[in-house]
C-alpha cells in the first residue's frame, strides 16, 4: 500500500521568520490521520525550522558532493541542516533552469547513493496535452530519469505527477485526468518492474490543488496525496488539504 503524503512546496517565498511561523502553526494543526506531511522551504531557512512533526526537504540539490558549483547545494549539505528529502525535476527547474532528463537521472543516482529520499516530479506542458501526447511524454521522463533503477531502489519511491498547465495557474486537472495519468504511471512501473513494486510507489498529484478540490482528487484510487504549491503557504488551506483524506 503506498504511503499517503501531502507535501508543501514553498518555492522562493517567505522570509526566515515567516517560515518559522508557518511551520509552528502547521505543527499545532497536525492531525492524527495516517498522512505524512512534508514541507520544502527555501533551503536557507531549513536549519532554523522545527522538524518535529513535519518532514523537511530541499526544493533542489546538485548531484555532486562538493566543489566549484556556485549557487548549488549538495545532498551532504542539505542533510547537515536536517533535510531528509529533496524534490527532483520540478517543472520550474526543468523549464526555467534547463534541467534535462539526463541531469535529473544523475540527481536520482546521487540521492540513492547518499540514502537521501526524493520526490520525482514529472508532467506534460499544455501543448503536449493538447496534442494528446501526454502519456508518451510523461513515460519518457520516467524512462530517462528513473527506470534505470533496480527493483529494490524503485520500491517506495515517490513520484509527483504535475501537469505543467495546472501549476500555479488555478487550472486543476480534473480528478479523471489525474486518475488516468496516475493509473498509467503505476502500470508502466508494473510493466518495467512488477505489480508489487508499483503498489509501493506513492504517486502524488500537483497543480492548483486546493481545499475545494483536494477531497475529490485524493479519493481517486491511484492518487496517494499531493504536492502543493500556493495553497501550502496558508496554514488553514494546507491543513484543510491534509484533512481531505478523512
Ligand atoms: C508546485 O509548484 O508543485 C505546485 C503544484 O504549485 P501550485 O499548487 O501552486 O499549482
If you had to describe this structure to a student in words, what would you say it looks like?
The chain is of the alpha/beta class and 246 residues long. The protein is 40% helix and 15% strand. It has an eight-stranded parallel β-barrel with strand order 1-2-3-4-5-6-7-8, surrounded by five helices. Helix 4 crosses helix 6 (134-145). The longest helix has 18 residues, at 175-192. The mean pLDDT is 96. The structure holds phosphoenolpyruvate (PEP).
Briefly say what this structure is:
The protein is an alpha/beta fold and about 250 residues long. About 40% of the residues lie in helices and about 15% in strands. The mean pLDDT is about 95.
| DSSP strand count | 8
Query: Which molecules are bound besides the chains?
Result: phosphoenolpyruvate
Report the order of strands and helices: EHEEHEHHEHHHEHHEHEH
Secondary structure category: alpha/beta
> How large is the share of residues in beta strands?
15-25%
Considering the protein shown, what is the CATH homologous superfamily? Aldolase class I
The overall number of domains is: 1
Detail the topology: elements first, then pairings.
Elements: E1 5-9, H1 16-29, E2 36-40, E3 55-58, H2 75-80, E4 85-88, H3 91-96, H4 101-113, E5 117-122, H5 126-130, H6 134-145, H7 151-154, E6 158-161, H8 175-192, H9 195-198, E7 202-206, H10 211-218, E8 225-228, H11 235-242
Helix pairs in contact: 4-6, 10-11
The chain binds phosphoenolpyruvate.
